[in-house]
Amino acid sequence: MYTTKKLDGNITIDGLGNEPAWETVEWAGDFTQRQPSDGDRPSQKTAFKILYDDKNLYVLIRAYDDAPSKIVKRMSRRDGFEGDWVEINIDSYFDQRTAFSFTASVSGVKGDEAISNDGNNWDASWDPIWYLKTSTDDLGWLAEYRIPLSQLRFGKKAEQIWGLQVSRRLFRKDEVSNWQYIPKNSSGWVHLFGELHGVVGIKPQKQLEIMPYIVGQSNQYEKEEGNPYADGRDIKISGGVDGKIGITSDVTLDFTINPDFGQVEADPSQVNLTAFEVFFREQRPFFVESKNILDYQLSSSVTGGNYTSDNLFYSRRIGRPPQYSPDLNDDEYIKSPDYSTILGAFKLTGKTKKGLSFGVLEAITEEEKAEIYYAGEKRKEIVEPMTNYLVGRIQKDFNKGQTIVGGIVTSTNRKLNDNLSTFLHREAYSGGVDVVHRTKNRNYFISGNFLASKVIGSREALIETQTSQRRYYQRPFTRHFSMDSAKTSLSGTGGTLKIGKSGGGNIRAEMGGTYRSPGFEINDIGYLRSADQINQWIWVGYQTLKEFSIFKNLNINFNEWTSWDFSGTRNTAGINVNSNFQFKNYWWAGFGFFPSTHSISNADLRGGPAIKYPGGEGFSQFVDSDTRKKFKVNFYQSHFWGNEDVSKEHYFEMGFSFQPFNALQLSIFPTYSTYESLLQYVETGEYNSDKKYVMASIKQKTLSASIRINYIITPNLSLQYYGQPFCSKGVYSQYKQVAQSKDRNFGKRFVLYGDDQIQFDRENNTFGFDENRDGVEDFTIDNPDFNFLQFRSNLVLRWEYIPGSTLFVVWSQSRTGDSERDRFSIPNISHGLSNIVPYDVFLIKYTYRFRL
Question: Which residues lie closer than 8 Å to 553 by C-beta, 6 or more apart?
């Protein structure tokens, strides 16, 4: 317990802590090491003091160091957590589940995170306004904070009691110590905090911040003769406003009108050969901040799995690219928006004194129209309807947070015209209830949820839903569902149940199962990779708590999993044994081995029958050098060999990071992968009213690199560069059609086309197939070979000229095209990219935060 006092006098935040007011409270110390040697005394002493007044909390942390010249003062962007740092966590709700974290690096860089779920979620997107100065002397270094009470959340009480934790990282020894000792094998974090007493007579502070912005943007690209919409340059000026309003001390409203996300980093390049949608992480600030409140992951699993990305709320649906592309006649030109305009959005979040937390988000996107030009005439077609999105989430704590009961509802409502109603839902709803109960000092848990969904629309739209890649109701040889062309709605359910041991001792474990019924559909506002599945997993992990032999840390894990569809067919099964460990020289290494039995895919033939693949064996390995050093190396590789020589996959990544001086960080992470398969889906043809599922052998090579340069001039002024060259080449051969797709004999699952059955049309770049060898082409497919090139980059100057107010200057460039050179080599990739005309965006964004 630490007892503070009310400030008597004045404190100037200068990092010196020499005002007489600081002498009115005592130093607190007696820290305990948590990393690397749990429970030992730390190498260096740490102490802190806390004061308060009616508007602010003041914190002074003294980090003693008997070798001040060895203090590491690395610079980074906000939330970079580089070098030596100290940190204070405050559970001002005193709910033993949530807290606010404020980190000070010795270089003066701030870090701040909203902690939830008893320390299992740390949201670095939370950026409160607070003040920090640091200094060094012959005793070590000092951090002095001023945290406005308006940035915290607490109830109205005569005397406040808050949860408190203070931590320190000694960078050169990779050592972390805490004031309130929390063993490494503990389950949770916040509920084990110490307590802050002595805060008397303060009132909750209401927050009112308005942040208008203005953006000037210039796009430059290749001019297209005859196209009135592609003259080589576009210029536009726009503006909007963001805001944060403290409705009460426990409730906050965040809103945005016409938000701009021009400074957001581009998504990584990918070539997707699967039937499924690629998941991209959210990077837009309005949706990233406080995302944990509305997050509703359907199935969190220690073992991973392709179902762990499923979520009832996937914020990238809001403001998505238009979903309709009008068909164009010859000599017609189109100008279509890249994204749907977000007219406005708000988030209402809070937590009551009785432990009820809630979050509500509503957003409206504008009806978007494409303009089409032909022979001097223009017409417009709607490509995205006006849409309203709504998400509501509640959670209630019981028994001091040991039991949590929650729920969520979502809705999507669209204003549709005749064209859009043929493939979009008019209405979509989903909801869920969830419960977590912890026992035995929170070391054991049981958790579960139950989910339901319903989509409503025209018969044509529901046919699209039933035949989409997430369920393929038209699939032959299925008994547990069938496609109904008269449907105007579709409903389904999902759920998860798991039990486990999350703390206490060296061993942890988890066992669980999850399902999505065939009719479950949440993709109007959520993300669902695939319905019609049941998954089961078991995980057991062992971790050391003390250094021993040559190791600082050692972790060993065993995983087992199986999946079925609702017909009872076992689609996959496998195990994984892996380990990761840190040596006493601070290097990390690890490996994994993952054999699997057969796998059955219900989606690979895009509505055709399920196809069975042989199992195989995989192996992975990584080595990371000492992260404390200015030059670091990371290496990762993974390999998979399918039985029957059906497939081979190899992936290599080598990362290099260099920090020549504290303000400059350089890194490059090149990756190289190869993929070979005898059974890669190509297209579905038709012959005599029968569908022919054409597959082929493929050899694919992919080379890319992520390049980053960060120059942190001051904690509030930075220049950042991100670039990713990307090339992927795929060559198809040995075309075949699917025969008995699940036959026990692998060779009977397909039939090779003979040379006399395939004819290549070089002029049209198509293949013709002669099924009955009568010399007449029965169907054609486009040549599937590809040699894709892309380069994406962002250069961002960011200046936070006063707290909360920022100037961005951005240059982004993209180059996308195909390589004309057949050989896969770095010189040819470089030559191909240099010959692609770039698309450049120059942007200036000015934001000013008013605190009222």
Answer: 36, 543, 544, 581, 582
